[in-house]
Write a structure and sequence with these properties.
By secondary structure, the protein is mainly β. Helix content is about 15%, strand content about 35%. The chain contains 1 helix and 10 strands; from the N terminus they run αββββββββββ. Strands 1, 4, 5, 8 and 10 form a 5-stranded antiparallel beta sheet that branches. Strands 2, 3, 6, 7 and 9 form a 5-stranded antiparallel beta sheet that branches. β6 and β7 form a beta hairpin. About 15% of the residues are buried.
């Protein structure tokens, strides 16, 4: 052992520690989440809601290039009648009417979990979904998801 004076760890032990640290760093980088994941998402349910019910609100800062989506499943009208269900994406604006990014039909959510999208909204801000169906009666759905 050339140049080893007995103080501290021997050079071979230092190399083993350094190699182990480098290997764990490389493994950590390999499994780190990528930037391609959505900026945010949430999951909830609807229970006995009337038309124009609004979801929780979220802030989309567009730190990614992912579409804004809504997914609904297990939809039913509480009186058992057939129904038409649409989801509207809206951006909240203080002291001005909200911006609408359009409605998407999710009628198939009774038996499936359709996902609808609005692309990437052109503005940042606070968004919410509004659920539109007949003016009478209430609906329920589980799950209700949004990703942005």
């Amino acid at each position: 052992m050339a140049n080893y004076d007995g103080a501290g760890d021997p050079p071979a032990a230092n190399r083993r520690r350094r190699n182990a640290l480098m290997a764990s760093t490389l493994i950590g980088l390999a499994v780190a989440p990528s930037a391609a994941h959505a900026e945010g998402s949430w999951q909830s349910s609807l229970s006995h809601v009337a038309t124009k019910y609004e979801s929780r609100r979220w802030t989309d800062r567009h730190t990614d290039a992912n579409y804004t989506t809504a997914t609904l499943g297990g939809c039913s009208r509480d009186d058992g009648a057939t129904f038409s269900l649409n989801v509207e994406l809206r951006r909240s604006r203080t002291a001005l009417p909200d911006d609408s990014y359009g409605t998407r039909n999710v009628n198939s959510c009774t038996y499936q979990q359709p996902t609808v999208d609005w692309g990437v909204p052109t503005a940042t801000g606070t968004f919410f979904n509004r659920y539109l169906h007949y003016d009478f009666g209430t609906i329920s759905a589980n799950p209700v998801k949004a990703a942005y």
